[in-house]
Specification:
Blueprint (H helix, E strand, L loop, with lengths): L3 H8 L23 H16 L1
Length: 51
């Protein structure tokens, strides 16, 4: 399995980055995303777009 990011990047003529927080991991029942993960990626995006 794969996410839509790598699939769509092969179909579009633009550079792309596949980024995001998993809610449930694909490969392990022990991989879970937490509330803090969402807050941290929010802060990362905010800083990135402030540049």
């Amino acid at each position: 399995g794969s996410t839509i990011g790598p699939i769509s990047s092969t179909q579009l003529d633009i550079s792309s980055v596949d980024i995001g927080n998993p809610i449930l991991g694909m490969h392990s029942i022990k991989e879970l995303g937490g509330v803090r993960d969402h807050f941290n990626i929010y802060r990362s995006f905010k800083k990135f777009y402030e540049l």
